[in-house]
Amino acid sequence: MTLNQLLVELDGYKENEEVIVIGATNFPESLDKALVRPGRFDLKINVPMPDLKARHDILKLYLDKVKCDPNLDIEPLARSTLGLTGADLANLVNQAAIQGSVRGAEFVTQGDLEMAEDKIRMGPERRSLELREKNKEVIAYHEAGHALVSLYTEGSMEIRKATIIPRGGALGMVSFFPERDELGYTKKQMLAQLDVAMGGRAAEQIIFGDKEVTAGASSDMKGATGLAMSMVAHFGMSEKVINIL
Fold first, then answer.
1. What is the DSSP letter of 216?
2. Left (φ > 0), alpha (ψ -120 to 50) or beta: where does 230 sit?
3. Same domain, 67 and 157
4. Mind telling me the catalytic residues?
5. Could you list the residue range(s) of the whole structural domain that residue 69 is in?
6. How many domains does the chain have?
7. Is the residue at 103 inside a domain?
8. pLDDT per residue as tens digits for the range 92-118
9. Dist. CA 1–CA 7, nearest whole Å
10. 52 near 78, Cβ under 8 Å?
């Protein structure tokens, strides 16, 4: 009955009551057709993820509420937080404040913010995980492989950080700075991503040999496979597909 009454109000039978109905959803494709038919929700506004300037302003808004290092630079953090929502950014500042308080610091530093971002993206540090020296060596070469390929591949993004500190399900990671928020990646940039993804496995093969490679490249292979399939099936970037068309 509540739903039916809402639909009646949306039809505008009682215009003199000056009722405005506002709805929000993350899944518009799942809404009932009776709710979204013409005449009910007349204006639809898409709210995308915050862009670079928006992330900068959101971070500044929340950082103004905590005591920060006077030399704090928000710009690198705004660049590296591509894909995070406003709520994520608020959580990032909160986690950084907690980190500073645990250290007994007087103010939040750049390092606190970077650690908070790593925690949000990859999970907390796995301090209890004990790795053998051999494992650390393999992980270090693997991540160095990603970093080196990125440095020497045209179209790759700037490296932000390379680490072998285990977090979440990852034993190490190389993260990147996008130069700007890309509205559409080029074929060169996508091929660079594929090259960088293969850099870890390539480093293992060069240093330890084909028979000593590990399963550490599993997520790299999965991501590269998905990107390659999209390039061929969705973006028409395969020469063979173009020739067939």
1. G
2. alpha
3. no
4. 143
5. 52-122
6. 3
7. yes
8. 999 999 988 888 888 899 889 988 888
9. 10
10. yes
